[in-house]
Amino acid sequence: METRLNKFLTEANYCSRRQADRLIAEGQVLVNGRPAILGQKVTSADKVEARGELISARKPRQQHAYLAFYKPAGVICTTDPDAKDNIIDAVNYPQRIYPIGRLDVKSEGLIFLTNDGSIVNDILKAENKIEKEYWVEVSSPIEKDFLTHLAKGVYIDGRKTLPAQVQKQGKKAFTITIVEGKNRQIRKMCEILGYFVTKLVRIRIGNITLGRLKPGKYKSIDPATIGI
User: Fold this and answer.
1) Which Gene3D superfamilies does UniProt cross-reference here (predicted)?
2) Domain 3-55 is classified in which CATH homologous superfamily?
3) Is 46 an annotated catalytic residue?
């Protein structure tokens, strides 16, 4: 029976389908010794390798893990084991897991990790509907107009960001809740308005909060409570 290669890798608990497509596009997946192509199908008779590792058709089903991790600043959201300060080494979980989404290297806070490829797809599909709340500290005292502009939206690369919920928390601190996830979005919004971010912490995704979780630590969560 033929199976799409990205699904094959997901069912083998190797990575999510999106990550599989990226690995295939980068030439890091071989089928019978030849570089795989996007959309390719395989059977149990094919020899599939990813990053030099032979992938079994179906590994023994391991218990699904759903983690909320406090990513420290400096940790990189990559599963590449050769990358310094990669998130997998930082979590040090006994099963193979991978992050859902990302935080830039300078930012810290809440990020989900799992070995359940199906929930990854569900969360990423709903990414622009799930609220993400951040604690932000900036280099200059905050003025009212700055918060007003953030709430209404800022033009980044010719596109205006969606309305946000913003609340001042101190002389140089505020919280912002967005439903987008553009690369370095909050940092760019602040920079355009003349402010430099000195600290950025994601404190909530959907219904899951950072709570008392410490940097570098994780807790198990029920994916049904995220609110997708």
Assistant:
1) Alpha-L RNA-binding motif, Pseudouridine synthase I, catalytic domain, N-terminal subdomain, RNA-binding S4 domain
2) RNA-binding S4 domain (3.10.290.10)
3) no
